[in-house]
Every structure is written in structure tokens, then in C-alpha cells.
Prior knowledge:
The chain has about 400 residues and is an alpha/beta fold.
Amino acid sequence: MFEGKRVVLAVTGGIAAYKSIYLASLLRKKGAIVETILTEAAQKFVTPVSFNGVTGHGVYSDGFQNINDEIPHIYLSKADMIIVAPASKNEIAKLACGMADNLLTSTISATKSPVFIVPAMNTNMYLNPINQENLKKLKEIGYIIIEPVSGNLACGDVGIGKMREPDEIYNFISDYFKNAEDDFYRGMNVIVTGGPTISKLDPVRIFTNQSSGKMGERICESLIKRGANVTYISYKKPANERINHIKIETTEDMLEEIKKRMSENKLLIMSAAPLDYEFESYHDEKIKKGEALTFKMKRTPDILKTIKPYKGDLKVIGFAAESENAYEYGLEKLKNKGMDMIFINNILKDNVFGSEENNGIMISKNGEEKKVPRMDKSLIADAILDFFKEQN
């Protein structure tokens, strides 16, 4: 798994920095070439000598001269992966803001490789709304967050914020790359849809829904990780720049983009929430304010029903977000819309819109079922792809 891989281990300031020495040693034992970045704050807790001793490779910090005739942050950015452990609140904030004011942030700004962020800090600092927003932003960009656990903290408090043990970090990263070695999805052409569609009433007003598109983005990221060729069709632009994006507005737009690509793709994952109704007419000028506003709506095409007669060998994974009788309606959709698998959840009970988490039940066309407990949408994406692979 790690044999011959270049790993940059970036260590920030915090008492948990000592654990990173063991992590560096563990990665080397697994065959990785480990190079280390120590921030100025990290060097108040650990020394370059310790990391050089366990890795046998360079330890770098701000002000370092060129490495093998390359600028340090460019050289380090070409590693196969970067692990920031521990990741302090300060460095997380810098990364979320796109800063590049030291070797660590400059290296990550320049890399196209997977970046793993391992937070470690006081409970109140970790739960601080700004820190949570920063972690959310990094996750949306495509960084992988290895969440802390609850336990005894250096300040004497007990709560969440404790950095995971080196063995746990290693296992998490190993599992991530096991998915990347997925022969089933490697080279597969996949269409993913996500988020809402819109209908314009006039140049200012639109009709839409609360779908965030996060589930679709997490599915795209999991597919890319597994080596698939992904086309993402949505109204909202994904935060992750690695995702090949086709922007649409209306349900009809989404249908046409899918139809164009059906013959070139093996799988369609319909995680979008396209509008069922749209305005019957569009007003070229902004409608002036009055006592009341009445307008007519018309049905939009049902995308999966429309493509069903001529989808050929295209496999389809659908979603059913229902407010009542979710299981029954989901089963009906699975059978009537030509799906090979469906993910069903109750939107009222589970409060999923805009959330980083979801839960539900997966059902294949063969009748196999698997419940998915509430968890991060990136893990939901992995569960969906794993279940589909098992059934095909």
C-alpha cells in the first residue's frame, strides 16, 4: 500500500506533535519515503533530529534552501500524499483562507495530491463555529478530515479534540487508498447529477429547492478516488476543482445533458433533486410589487422515466428523498423507473438538506437491502458505491 510512496508529514504546533514521530516511524516501516515539514510552532514541541532519525529523510521548515535544485514547496507538493498531523486551529484557518505564508501552507497550495487533515486542539477551540466552518470548507474542497476523538486533553479538560492514535490514522489512510485500487470502477465512465434545478419567473426570481448537492459531490470524489472518469451535471458549481462539471439550470437542461452522454457512459448516479414543476411562462421584465402574485406551474419531464426505454446497457442508481412512506415510495421508484439500485431516506425525519451527514437504506433491483446508519456523506458515498459493486 505505502511501498515506495512519497509521503510528506506536516507537523504543526501542539502537544500531540510527539505522536507524529511514531506515525512517521510507522509509515517508514510500511515502505513509505517520509519527508517532514515542521512549522515554527511545532519545533517548540519536537525537534528535526527526532524525525530525521525515524525517517532517514529530510526535515524541512521555513527558510529552507532549494531541494535538489527545486523550490522547497514545489518539490514537496509533488509527494503522493500530504498528512497534516497534528493540524492546529491556526493552520486549519490559514488553509481554509487559501494562505501560503509558510512552507506548510505553500506546499499544500501547490499540491494536486490527497491531503489528510488530522485536527488536535481543545474542545472549545475545535467546536468553535469558525473552526467548524473552516473544516467544512476544506472538506468541500476535497481535503480528507480525520476527525479527532473524545478523551483527556493536555489542558486537563475531557472532551472532543484529541488527535487519533498513529495506528488509527494509518488505518484510515490505508482504507482510503484501498478504495483507490478499485478495479471495478477504474476507467469507468460515470455521469453523476446533484443538487437542485431551477425555474426562472423573471430576471430576479427563481423557483428551486433546498438540495445542496453535497451528496453528489461526495459521490464524485469517491469515484475519482477509485479511478473513474466522472462527469458531474448540476446547477451549483462544486467546490472541488478536480470534478469535471457541466452547469445546467432547468430539469430539461439536465435531461438533455444526460441524453447526450448516455451512450458513452456505463453508469448514471441520479443524486440530483430536479424540480417536478416549473413556471409556465417567463417574464422578460422584473414583475412589479403588487397586492398578490399568482402564477401557473407545469410539470417537468421525469428524467429517469424518459430515458428508461432507450438507456440500453446504462446502469442507474437513483435516490428517493421522501417525507412520508419513504420505503414504499422508494420501492415503487426502483421498479417503475428502470433503476438498478436506489438509496432511500426520509427528509423530514433525518434533516438532511445542507447537512454533512445522511442515513437511509439501499435496495438493489435483486431485492438485496442494506441499512446505512447516520454518518458523513463521504462515507455514505463509499457505502453506495461498494453496495452497487457487490450487486454487479
